[in-house]
Sequence to fold (480 residues):
Amino acid sequence: MAKIVLIEPRPPNLHIFSQFYSPRLGTFILGTLMRERGWEAEVVIEEWEALDFASLSKADLVGISTITSTAPRAYAIADRLRSLGTKVIMGGPHVTFLTEEAMAHADYVIRGEGEKALPSFAAAWEKGLGLEHVPNLSYWRDGAMRHNPMQDHADDLDQIPIPDLNLSKAMSRQAGGKNVTPVQTSRGCPFACSFCSVTGMFGRKYRFRSTASVISELRRYDPRRHFIFFYDDNFAADPAHTKELLRAMIAAKLAFKWSAQVRADVTRDPELVRLMKKAGCRIVFIGFESVNPQSLKAMKKGQTVAEIARAVKVLRRRRIRIHGMFVFGFDEDDWRTVRRTVRFAKRSRLTSSQFMILTPLPGSEFYDRVCAQDRIRFRDWNLYDAHHVVFEPTRLEPLDLQRAQIYSHRKFYSLATSLRKLINFKWVDLAIAHYARKLNRRWLKINRTYLTVLSLLRPKRKHQHVTVDYREEAVLDQVS
Fold:
């Protein structure tokens, strides 16, 4: 029996979900597919367990999935395994868009979705056949790099097996606690935000699993021990289909508490929001991105500031918690944008907020544009985690953009705000604020060298468009 081990490398830096980590589903789906072919399959989540290279080197094939920020670690793992004589195949968004870079470290690369490509590769492997007919595959032959044609995305997601999360020993050991359990009901996104690489990876066509398939998967879990996180990039992109699923969850009396990623436009449909609450929705993650109308238009978000404000009002009325995500660094952003964003987040009484830095991810329109304009300042992929400035903004210097993020988190999660939560007995919100402040302090400590480098790179002359009033941002003077 051949053996494959699929690895998800650990993130290089602290992130907001460091304490509540939930793995991506790709490795589990592919591991389940390979097991169904008769292979021995194992998934290793490095954030949860150390890699045992002596054991890994005994596998017939090791697959490594990587996003941009984990690419350096993925390459280091691949190099180590190949030096031990182990064959390595890589996949994920980063290597899909920068395949030639990845091929310097891997024997094979699967570009795009892997559910059709990996079994096809396994069949050729088992029979000792050539690889020229394996879709999406890049590989070495006779010292030259070959790239097979890309195959269309899978339309019928019901043909993809329900992922067996027990393929990870670390995941199965967590069975005693309240697990955050990932479930995916759809792929693709009909929108085309300029900074996002999702459509490049999964396409703009919205594909979804049947309601019966999702309900079947949910029945595997226990509402007393599993909190469901719907992994869809936009859980309610097709409102009619989403309402069908929600009604089925209610009729089946599954009683799960769950969360999902949605857009602000979810509140255009009052019935949809009502069903979400009734079906067990406790918190939604919304990419508000900006309260600057010009930024929203430039990023092709397809929403307005008024729609953002309405979404907050409707969801709070339904007692659904909101994790609001905002991004700084668009060409239209300046310090007024930063101050208005923080003020909006505080006045909206969001449960939690995440202020991120615009990051040029390979595969996005924004990446192509800043590369063409020679505005990339750091090409260390470790920094491409939306918490570090890696490009030259238009209206803010890189250090000031970094300071904007630090300032925003400090303002939103201030001690005064926590005191109000305490007085109002909002224990969950209070715990989140405490966690966020602790995380921010650790981030500053770990990133002292990086902040010093930004300070040294700061030009003596201000950017032409910058107007900075530091009287309102006195806290920023503590970071340099």
Q: What stands out?
A: DSSP finds 19 helices and 15 strands in the chain. Residues 461-480 have pLDDT under 50 and may be disordered.
